[in-house]
Amino acid sequence: MKTGGPPPIIDEDSFLRLFEEIGPTKLAVRIGSSIRAVYSRRERIEKRRNRQITGPDHRLATRHNISHPGRLTHDVKNGVVLVGSDCHYWPGAASTGHRAFVKYCRDLRPSVVVLNGDVIDAATISRHPPIGWERRPSVQEEIEAAQDRLNEIELAAGKARKIWTLGNHDGRFETRLATVAPEYARVHGVHLSDHFPNWEPCWSVWINDDVVIKHRFKGGIHAPWNNTMWAGKTMVTGHLHSAKVTPLTDYNGTRYGVDTGCIADPSHRAFLDYTEDSPKNWRSAFCVLTFRDGTLLWPELASVFDQNSVQFRGSIISV
Q: How much is the pTM?
């Protein structure tokens, strides 16, 4: 039997099938090639066919995509969807809004829990320059703090589906890396979702094709109205931290523009310097969406009342 010489030839379709079935390492052994040569051929085929080729671990393959899936869908006939936004987690004590969110994940038994963007603050990689010599947590410190807080939510939410819609602050993580180190695009860990494997990342969530949950759409104080007006759907957003429900009724019926408020404490030091201690029309709250026979009832807000309690459905509840 001859040794050496060129590696066995395998046609492109067979290469693709084996790459996706057994992965690059086993494929290299199967065809007598180097792992580097396998990856190089994979890259050439991706460019030619204009699609990404991934190995058999679908969970990791999805997380390694440089772009988030655009839209996730979920049907709820009878049940609750819990939506919290703008956590801006820093190391330190949990906010009242977070403690309440965890409580309602446990008490309301939602079918879906949505963290609607800006789960991390990413202060040190902000486009805004630092003010003086302020101490801001590192990216690693923020990720570890968020992992601790999300673990609390996961334990309380049980089997509920867990979805994370990308916010502008979350986007800082990958934008920074894509700008300064684009060659690391496929390395595990460079995508924010790599650090939170139990959460499905996306841009938007569509519930029953009637309710759209996404971090932001229109801006300004009339954003909730404009969101539902222009979308033609009930739209639940965060971003503005204002916490309000705006109904809109026309020939098609009634739909809602909802600003969920923020899980973070509006007076937290994360916001102090760049807002220059100005008054902020912000409120700490989150949204409860209740469905009966597939129809959304009036959206409800659970809002922080004081440092130890929230108000919800006419009651003051300790958290």
A: 0.74
